Structure formats: structure tokens, C-alpha cells
Amino acid sequence: MTASSERERFGARLAKAIADRGPLCAGIDPHPGLLEAWGLPVDASGLERFALSATEVLAARTAIVKPQSAFFESFGAAGVRVLERVVETAREAGALVLLDVKRGDIGSTMAAYTTAYVAEGAAIAADAITVSPYLGFGSLVQCAETAVAAGRGIFVLARTSNPEAAAVQNAKLPDGRTVAQAIVDSAAALNASAGPLGDVGVVVGATVAPGELDLSRLNGPVLAPGFGAQGATVADLRALFGASLPGVLPASSRDILKHGPEQAALRQAVERVAEVLADPQENDQ
């Protein structure tokens, strides 16, 4: 797979962004409860004020932001228009955008999702999207190839942080690997010749037990949800991924967003989390 000559590969852009701004992935999740906590109406106007205010702060201070598409889609066409503005605002502030859509299908349907988000000229042009491999990893290969050719990336669900996922993701295949490990290995195969970081990432929850997965050959980024509100600490991250956290993107949303609506409080919250992640001696946050 070769990236467009007009756009640097996603993995390379992400590596630079992490070096410049740190590894934190800030979620933008306009949950109705958060809108209410901010004193906003749970409608399209409240969504717009919440999402754009949060994006202005978070995107100026993090390598990558992660809007959760479902919370925008729940408001219909008006919500999707706000999502488009979030993507534009984040990009203007210098952050990459990982759109959390978890799409996964076969044939022409997956091709349509690809066209919508990561192909050249995509309608909602994110830098990367989350995808589901549970119709078979092969169903995602064309999406990955198209994304890479456009200078974009994908993050494949591998071992997620929700407890009910273990029954499927830790199931053993005939060759002895877990389903999750097979997904990681398939992503690694697509990243084999990429540098400094591949364009195909995986999603591995920060609450997963150390030793479940071998990520040593991935050569790509890891999105690590579960940090903060779901209970994972920096010590958990380092136990799971190693002390240096290369290419690991700890994701936090509610723990930061709950400090709004005052932008100064949001700034302080995201800066505190970034400082915790940057401190090699930090083990208790």
C-alpha cells in the first residue's frame, strides 16, 4: 500500500503529533448527561455549543481528538452537520481526528463506509476511523488500502475494555491464538513495511490484563480506551503496554469534559492529564 504523494502517511503524521503534543487522545462525547451538566439543552443547539466549545480547547492541546459519532447522529442531520464542523475545527487547531464510528461490513456496504470517511474526497474526511473486524478481518482490507492511499488510517477493534467482550475476543482459534491476537497479527501484516509507525492501529482497552496480547510486531498505533473514568491508571497503562508507551494513545473523555462548560477549567483538566502521562515516575493517577 502506498500513500498519496500529496499527503504524508497517517502513521508518520501521528508519530509527529505525539512527539509534539503527547499521546493523549481526547474524546468528544456529547452525552445527554454531559450537556445537562453544562447547563445546555439536549437538542441540536446544545450539541453545537458543547461540541465546538470542547473541540476548541481539546484540539489545541492534544495530538488527536476522538468524536463519538453516535452522539452526533442521534440528533439527525443537524447533528451530522455539527460533527462536520467539529472535524473542521479540530483540524484548524492542528489536531488529528479519529472518528469513532466502529463501522464493519462486507462488499459494497463497506466500500460506502470507506468512501464516506477515509477515501480521497470523503464527505466527512477524518484522519482515521474505528472499524469492527467481526465479519472477518479480510472485509476491512480494502478500507485499509483506500485509507492508506489517501494518507489516512484505521483502528481495528481487537481487545476492548467492556467486560462482555472477553467471551468473543478471548475465544481460542484452532491455531491456539485468541481472536484478539489474530486481529492484532492481521493488522501487523498490513503495517510490515511502514515507518516510523504503521497506518493500521488496533483498539486495546487500558483495563485489559497484562500479558493477554503480544503487540510487539504491530508496528502501528494502539488506541487505549478505559483510561480515567473507567478506572485505568498510568500504572495500568505501563503494565499493559510498557514503560515508554510507544504509539499508545490513552483515551479520556468524561474525566476531562466533566470540567466544562468553563473553557479555562477544561484547559486545566486536559493539561493535568497530559502532564500525568508525560511523567515517567507517575504511577498513581
Structure description:
This protein is α/β, with parallel strands linked by helices and 285 residues long. Helices cover 42% and strands 14% of the residues. It is built from 12 helices and 8 strands. The protein has helices spanning 10-21, 32-37, 44-58, 69-73, 76-92, 107-117, 141-149, 166-169, 179-190, 234-241, 254-257, 263-278; strands spanning 25-28, 64-67, 96-103, 128-131, 153-159, 200-204, 222-224, 248-252. Strands 1-2-3-4-5-6-7-8 form an 8-stranded parallel beta barrel, surrounded by 6 helices. Helix 3 (44-58) packs parallel to helix 5. The protein is globular and about 55 Å long. Residues 1-5 have low confidence and may be disordered.
Topology, please?
Elements lengths: L9 H12 L3 E4 L3 H6 L6 H15 L5 E4 L1 H5 L2 H17 L3 E8 L3 H11 L10 E4 L9 H9 L3 E7 L6 H4 L9 H12 L9 E5 L17 E3 L9 H8 L6 E5 L1 H4 L5 H16 L7
Parallel strand pairs: 1-2, 1-8, 2-3, 3-4, 4-5, 5-6, 6-7, 7-8
Helix pairs in contact: 3-5, 3-12, 6-7
Q: Would you kindly provide a brief summary of this structure?
A:
Helices cover 42% and strands 14% of the residues.
Look at the helices and sheets and give the structural class.
alpha/beta
Mean pLDDT: 93
The fraction of residues in strands falls at: 5-15%
First-last Cα distance: 40 Å
Query: What is the helix fraction of residues, given as a range?
Result: 40-55%
Q: Which residues form runs of ≥5 with pLDDT under 50?
A: 1-5
Major β-sheet, in short? 8 strands, parallel, barrel
Order of helices and strands: HEHHEHHEHEHEHHEEHEHH
How many strand units?
Answer: 8
Tally of contiguous helical segments? 12
Sum up the overall morphology in one term: globular
- The Rg value, from CA coordinates, equals 18 Å
Which strand order spans the largest sheet, edge to edge or round the barrel? Answer: 1-2-3-4-5-6-7-8
